[in-house]
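REQUEST FORM: STRUCTURE PREDICTION
Request ID: SP-0412
Submitted by: Lab K.M.
Chain count: 1
Length (residues): 289
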Amino acid sequence: MQIKNAVIPAAGFGTRMLPATKSQPKEMLPIVDKPTIQYVIEEAVASGIEDIILIVGRDKRAIEDHFDYSFELEYTLEKTGKLDLLKEVRQISDMVRIHYVRQKEPLGLGHAIYCAKMHVGNAPFAVLLPDDLIISDKPAIRQMIDVYDESKGAVLAVKRVAEQQVSSYGILDAEEIDKQLFMVRDMVEKPSPAEAPSNLAVMGRYILSPEIFSILENLPPGKNNEIQLTDAIRVLNKTRQVYGYAYEGQRYDVGNKEGFLRATVELALKRPELQESFRRYIKDLAVKL
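STATUS: Completed
RESULT:
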C-alpha cells in the first residue's frame, strides 16, 4: 500500500525558543525567507505525500494562514508586476492538501499522533516532526518510504550521536543488518550514557503502520505523565518488526536556538543569490572575532 498521508505534530508551545514564540508559532520562525514548517512540508511533498495532517493547538492560526490563499497579497503582487513573487506565493497554497486537527490538551507526542486517526484510516503513514529539519538530495522521508516498501515494517530515522548526547534522544537497542539498516530489539527513552544500549538516536521521522492507533488508544501515560510515542512503538515491535534507518542528509534541531542559527547560516550559504556576499561577510566576521 502506498504511503500518501503524513502527520506533522505542531501543537507545542515552543518554550525552547521563547520569547520569540510567545505570540507566534515556533513553526513559523523563518529560516532565511521560509518558515521552518514549510521546509518540512516541502520534504513530504517531494516524497510523494498527497495529504498532510497538521496537529495544531491554540494560537496556531498563522500556520493555517500561511498555507491558505492570500487574495489581497496576490492581487497586489499581480497589480505591481511582481509575477515571480506571485508564482512563489501561489505555490505555497497549491502544493498539497492540508487538514488541520486540534489537539485540545498537550498530552504528549503519542496523543498528538493519535489525533490523526480519523484522517489516516487503515493505512501506513509518515510522521515528520517540525523541530527536525533534514536537508538531503533525496528527501529523508522518501528514503524511509523506500525502506518500508521493501521491509513492510515500521521505520524510524536514526543517527549515531556522541555519548554525552544520548540522554537527549530515544536510543535503540538494535541488530545491525547493514551500515544503514538496523533491526530494533527495544528502545530506551533518554537514557544516561551508562544505561544506553547504543548511540543510535531516533530522529524526527517515522513510517508507522495503522496498528499504532489502537496501541496509543489504550496506552497509559508514561514519562512526564504523557502518552509517549516511543512506548507505543515498543508495543508495536512485539507484533510487527520495527527498523532503524540511518538516513542520508544533514539534520538541524531548529527547535533550539543554536540549531536554528546553524540552519539559517548554512542554508543561506546554499542560496545562489546570497552565498557569495554572505560567505564574504562570515569570513570578515571571523577575522574580527
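NOTES: The chain has two domains: 5-253, 256-289.
Reviewed by: T.R.
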